[in-house]
Amino acid sequence: MSNDTEVDMKDVELNEVEEEKQPMTEGEAGNNYAISPVSEKNGVVKVKIPEEESKFTGLTKEELMKVAGTPGWVKVRWALLILFWLGWLGMLAGAIAIIIQAPRCKPLPEMKWWNYGPLYQIGDVNSFTASSNLKGVAEKVQTMDELKMKGLIIGPIHVSSADEPEKLQLTEISEEAGDLTQFQEVIKAAHKRGMSVVLDLTPNYKGKEPWFADAVSTVVKLESALLHWLKEGVDGFLFYGVEKVSAAAPDLWEDVRVLIHNDTDSVGKTKKVLIGVTEQSSPDDIVAVLNKTGVDLLLTDALRSTSVLDITNIVDRLYSTCGQTRLAWNIGGRIAGHLASLVGLTKVKLGQLLLLTLPGTPVFNYGDEIGLQDEGSKNPIMVWGDSKENMTEGETTTFYKFFKSVSEERSKERSLQHGEYLPLLNSTSAMAYVRSWDQNERYLIALNWHSTETVTLQLKHAEIPEHATIVFSTTSDKGDNVRNLAQLEVKPEQGLLLKFPYTP
Question: Which regions of 350-441 does DSSP assign to beta strands (E)?
Fold first, then answer.
């Protein structure tokens, strides 16, 4: 057989047996096949295979329902459902357990604006600023705000002549004090910064006694004057000798008290405060005046005692009897004079620290923040600089910085603002107490009033830890900030403000 015949027979076999693998070329005449993207090489033969499409077909609804209804799947579904609810109930029980076991926050006490203190008394506006009138007071409101003052006690500024009731004009501002427009500017500037303005409306402030002999007729005039000043935006009133007028005209005084207490700012819901001043110093007498007069706060002579032991007992008694929302603490005042003159320059910081950390409202006389002294006058000229950075160097600046620091601490810490009071020590020269509120940081105050002797306080109590950290000291010593309370050393005329954390 010839070679040509062999080739023809091989082509036939290839076409008949493996037709899908016979070689093809693109563009060949009569070619009815599409070119497949898949190529297979078999020896010398290149085969192009059309790509087969795959299609997935899921269960039909009927098939799915048939499978889902089988006993196995029913058991699985019930198991998953039970596990879900058990998990949910477990998380709920855990959340409830956490809430029950967690310490609850103590509800805040009901407080008025004057309970947040401190208050700043400007008895003589002529001595307070270079402007020598109410205009200067308005210009210094920002400075008072920087000291975290909550209110200003201004005046008296009304027209009055010593022991001459016929010349009394409670609604008129004296020429030396300024005019109504200036007083309105003071109120506006104070309210803009969240501060209140209390007006000292003691009638016979230029005489020997705060009230005229005919107290009844004076109180009658007082009611219309109160309405006048309340309309101007005054936030409260202060009166010296409140126990005397309440005794002389009890019914009329009650009308005055009700008038002030019933007046509320319709916009800010701000209550008006009634502050009294008395010369009483014993706890029993102070409580009696508070109850008899119905004043909100009462300034007294209680802290002017020379005995530290007496002061400790007075504070403890008044706190336990009245509660701190009715307590006001002061050392100086319009009539008594300034802090530095009453306790001495070396104890000014001690006085500042005491007033700012006792439970109640601290009240300062103007200039107490810089150690201003009376120097023959109860109304000395206030010392000012161009700014707080440019104040007179030395003690004035030191007093100011210390006062500002402690006042700022008080303004942001609940324990110092309205915390509970716990006395730790009774002694003739030193005192120590703790201020604490709920789960907030606690503060321990230690004061040594002795001029020459260092005292070592052995402070141990279930409410205090072994150690505490110093926040402020009235002296500039750079000792260890962490102190052992069981052997707390306090230098002469030194005051310490320490803190320690709450522990459940």
Answer: 361-365, 420-426, 430-436
The H or E element that residue 153 is part of is strand 151-154
- On whether the CB atoms of residues 469 and 481 are closer than 8 A, the answer is yes
| First and final C-alpha spacing in the chain | 113
In degrees rounded to 5, what are phi and psi of residue 121?
Answer: -95, 125
Residue 118: cis peptide before it, omega within 30 degrees of 0: yes
Any idea of the CA torsion for 487, 488, 491, 496, to the nearest 10 degrees? 180
Q: Which helix (H) or strand (E) holds 151?
A: strand 151-154
Tokens representing residue 160 in the block? 């009055």
H-helix or E-strand containing 169? Answer: strand 169-173
Token output for 290: 């508070």
Task: Supply the pTM of this predicted model.
Answer: 0.79
For residue range 112-158, list pLDDT tens digits in order. Answer: 999 998 999 999 999 998 888 999 999 999 999 999 999 999 999 99
Backbone angles phi, psi at 361, to 5 degrees: -100, 115
For residue 104, give the amino acid letter. Answer: R
Number of Cβ atoms within 10 Å of the Cβ of 2? 7
In whole angstroms, give the CA distance from residue 294 to residue 308: 29
pLDDT in the model for residue 71: 80
Tokens of 424: 């730790």
Q: Which residue type, as a one-letter code, is found at position 458?
A: Q
Q: Annotate 185-194 with b (16+ C-beta within 10 A) or e (fewer).
A: bbbebbbeee
In the predicted structure, residue 5 carries a pLDDT above the cut 70: no
pLDDT confidence bin for 377, thresholds 50/70/90: confident
For the chain, percent helix, then strand, then coil, each to nearest 5?
A: 40, 20, 40
Does pLDDT of 184 surpass 60? yes
How far apart (Å, rounded) are the C-alpha atoms in residues 353 and 482? 20
* H helix intervals, 102-211: 125-128, 134-139, 141-146, 180-192
Say yes or no to pLDDT of 469 above 90.
yes
| CA–CA separation, 223 and 171 (whole Å) | 11
pLDDT at 28: 44
Handedness of CA 401, 407, 408, 410 (dihedral sign): positive
> Is residue 419 predicted with pLDDT exceeding 50?
yes
Q: Letter for the amino acid at 30?
A: G
Q: How far apart are CA 476 and CA 497, in angstroms?
A: 13
Q: What are the phi and psi torsion angles at 266 (to 5°)?
A: -65, -20
Nearest to 432 by CA among 497, 502, 361: 497
CA distance 377 to 236: 27
Give the distance between the most distant pair of CA atoms in the chain. Answer: 161
Q: What letters, b where the CB count within 10 A reaches 16 and e where it falls short, cover 111-123?
A: ebbbbbbbbbbbb
* Ramachandran angles phi, psi of 388, nearest 5°: -65, -25
Structure tokens at 155: 């005046």
How far is residue 82's CA from residue 471's CA, in Å, rounded to a whole number? 57
